[in-house]
Amino acid sequence: MTLEIGLSHAFPDFRLEVDLTLPGGLTCLFGRSGSGKTSIVNAVAGLLRPDQARIVLDGVALHDLPPHRREVGYVFQDARLFPHLTVEQNLTYAARIRRQRPEGMARIVDLLGIGGLSGRRPATLSGGEKQRVAIGRALLSRPKLLLMDEPLAALDEARKAEILPYIEALRDETGLPILYVSHFLPEVARLATSIAVIEAGRVAAFGPAADLLSDLATAPLLGLRDAGAVLTAWIAAQEEDGLTRLDTLAGPIWLPHVAGEAGRAVRIRIAAQDVILSRTRPKGLSALNILPATVEALHEGQGPGVLVRLDLGGEFLLARVTRRSAQALDLQAGLAVHAVLKSVAVAQSDVGAR
Amino acid sequence: MSHWLTPEAATALALSLKVSLVAVLVSLPLGVLVAYALARGRFPGHGLLNGLVHLPLILPPVVTGYLLLLTFGRQGWVGAVLWDWFGVTLAFRWTGAALAAGVMAFPLLVRAIRLAIEAVDPKLEEAASTLGASRLAVFATVTLPLILPGIIAGVVLAFAKAMGEFGATITFVANIPGETQTLPTAIYSFLQVPGGDGAALQLVLISVAVAMLALALSEWLARRVARRIAGR
Fold this sequence. Notes:
Chain A has ten helices and 20 strands. Chain A has helices at about 35-45, 85-90, 95, 105-110, 125-140, 155-175, 185-190, 210-215, 220, 325-330; strands at about 5-10, 15-20, 25-30, 50-55, 60, 70-75, 145-150, 180, 195-200, 200-210, 230-240, 245-250, 250-255, 265-270, 275-280, 290-300, 305-310, 315-320, 335-340, 350-354.
């Protein structure tokens, strides 16, 4: 799958200029609010008619088609379920419009866990339920591409945690390309296979998620406070004291319970500011996770901090330390160090399916 | 009915019901279209259309009736065409009474429907379009069901207004018993002759009952709009 997006549009207060060629998988459009992310997905859906647009999905030009003929599913931030229809009627809406039988209904209802809701009215659903029904409704229109505009932004943490696994399943099991708008980095780190950073109507950076998240040049674009790389790990064992042992390229780490059988691959976002560096292997320390690493590069910002990119043997980790510490430790490329990470610093929501 | 209503009164009531029903049902499709255009359309002449629709509400009814006569009378520019080409005339006919009633009731009809359309979130219509619905299908499956109570409320109000229409009717189609004499013009006629008060009072009571019924019905329907759009 490839999706080409070429847009040019003058808004009263800013200009949108986008030229992107996206691979399959889940691509996150990341940027602060007002940067033009939603305008991009609206243009892809046909809800915004830009001054100039070239939108081509697998060789099919979409830009001249009206929204209803683009075969692009859209999950909005506010679920936008039809209030006068039941959940089931909402789900089968697209099929009824096209006078088709709703195909794959059972599988999608099962995937999203909305089997018990079919006779209910949208007004009686919780926010999380509404959003899952909205996802199901979009999927049942049998789209060639799924757009999701901050589908979790209106939900509290508990509801987010409820829906994230469903979106991961969508990404991993359906093979449907997804364009996902978010301004929340932990969510992006957990879901994205590619990331496009949007700033003031332009693409500031674009690439595979793991590369972009651990790249010293793009990390400041993503926001230093939230900067953090994504590690792949495999569940090794569930231990008796409630911890889970996971294997990484650089050795074992222990985290608070991570659900899953041994061998299941997960991705873990590790915030740069939670990583401590030591030149010698520390002893008598409460932190459980000590990974040997090599300093690959350093990036000095304007503030008192230094961002350090560590090579764990093929995967990369970011650490944020003060400039004073960097000097005291004499950090430089090629230096062997130990990265120290508190188990409890990794939030449950930062561990997701790979 | 006829043993307590005079034959003239019964005829006037039946004619009023026929005229009002035809007026409202014929103007309803146009009313929905104009209401949609006013609620959702952005086009040059939007303000002019809005003004035109509301004109019968602010003009003296006699003026509206006279304008109808000038336009749809046999010498009028529309009336002449209708007569020459189709042999149809509206002036001094019950169809003309229906036209007058329809024009006078039109602002109320459009207003109720427009309010209902404005209460529908356009984002729902966008969502429907991304699910494969054309503009027409969006209207039929999302907009129309959500505004249905508003349409019914508008119809009820317009019907009540049409039942009570006097000035434009008497100016355009006069007051011919059995052809154009509606409830209000019949009341007026009864009041012009000595001893007609009793018959007039009968018709007045019928008018009040019809109006109250229509108002109560529209109030009940208006509450349903709110509930329906909230989806409970």
